Structure to design on (119 residues):
């Protein structure tokens, strides 16, 4: 059974940093790519970043240069380093497997981790 467990969220002041982790119950090398997504209150879930099995990364324009996605295949864990956080980054953050069409697997959504950016 595939499960993703996100952690590392919390309350941070604007300009601060957080590092999110996503632990997978299976080898993340079995997926085409891994991605981070977020859902702000009252909004639809949006894509944040993707990292392919070979390490190639891609970011949403809103986080480019501020967030860094990485992976540790030996630990089956994906990370999201978030710097210079803004109030508009407040959301529940999720990770998921991503297929070659760039679509997340609807069966694998976890509970997510809450990130709140506020002074």
């Amino acid at each position: 059974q595939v499960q993703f467990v996100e952690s590392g969220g919390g309350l941070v002041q604007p300009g601060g940093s957080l590092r999110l982790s996503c632990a997978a119950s299976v080898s993340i090398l079995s997926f085409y790519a891994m991605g981070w997504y977020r859902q702000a209150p009252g909004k639809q879930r949006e894509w944040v970043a993707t990292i392919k099995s070979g390490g190639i990364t891609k970011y949403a324009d809103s986080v480019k240069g501020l967030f860094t996605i990485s992976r540790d295949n030996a630990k089956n864990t994906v990370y999201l380093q978030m710097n210079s956080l803004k109030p508009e980054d407040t959301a529940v953050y999720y990770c998921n497997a991503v297929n070659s069409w760039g679509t997340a697997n609807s069966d694998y959504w976890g509970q997510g981790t809450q990130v709140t950016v506020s002074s």
In short: The chain has a mean pLDDT of 96. The first strand starts at residue 4 and ends at 7. The chain is about 0% helix and 45% strand.
